[in-house]
Design a protein that fits this description.
80 residues; Arc Repressor Mutant, subunit A; 2 strands
């Protein structure tokens, strides 16, 4: 079974695309200006979805934003 990392493994607040607002999605880290959690984006990519497929699922995000979230998560994991 594939193990997927969670936000507990990643310091999302260090990413410029992320905000954490009390009362918004229970105070969990979300993509700035949205209610989108970053983990499902990264997990989809890690499970083999392409950037274009992920963008279809999250059309309010640009491909550049999606790519940055993935790069950030992978960099954070490499440091652990």
């Amino acid at each position: 079974m594939t193990h997927l990392e969670t936000s507990a493994d990643i310091d999302w607040i260090a990413c410029e695309l992320i905000e954490q607002v009390p009362g918004k999605v229970s105070g969990r880290p979300v993509v700035r200006g949205t209610r989108i959690l970053p983990d499902p984006i990264v997990n989809s990519y890690d499970l083999g979805d392409s950037l274009e497929e992920i963008h279809e699922g999250f059309p309010s995000l640009s491909v550049a934003q999606i790519k940055r979230l993935i790069e950030f998560a992978h960099t954070q994991r490499a440091r652990q």
